[in-house]
Write a structure and sequence with these properties.
Length: 233
Amino acid sequence: MPGTREATIGAVLGDVLGFAAAVAVSPLPVIAVILILATPRGRRNGVLFTVGWVLGLAVLGAVMLAIASPAGASAHKHPATWVGALKLALGLFLLAFGARLWHRRPRDPSEARLPKWMSAIDRLTPAKIFALGVGLAALNAKNAPLTIAAGAAIGSAGLPVGQQIGALAAFVVVATLGLLAPLGIFLLGGERARTTLGDWKDWAAQHNVAVMAVLFFVLGLKLLGDGVSVLTS
């Protein structure tokens, strides 16, 4: 029935876009792209980094989508047991990771320190900049669980292939907004762009740990609830 299909797509997008928004507001990738834009070849490298990020999200999401396809992960539009177990495991991981981040957060935001690898960004080759974008998207302990959860949510919903691809594309686009905003400001903002981006970088550097800890705690509880719902229904 058409109404049922639309409701299913709406429910999946509502689920997936929440994960995408969490990926989009991750402070570290935003700081990384701002630092890249400040390098002599910032325009080209910023685009390369963003393309790598998009590719990393798309590939990881597509792999999870293939694993959690309707034939293998869904029975009568209901997610398979292993999908519930996966969400439960991801939820527990995010809760534990968020608690660890919160415990280790600087009590004084001005004492926050950026990862050491960021100091070498201005010396990276274009290929390494591209690889950094892929890695921060697909291999990062903060973003990978969210992308995996999004892929599982899409693949286990029993949607047609075209709608699965559309849902994954929507996830990738929304998850990339955090990078597109500073990139757009840099390309279109003129002289004021550097000051604006510098203010963003300083704020994100100071509050990175606290923001991610709260984000992980909220999303961990959501995934935990989703997993329990699948396993008990």
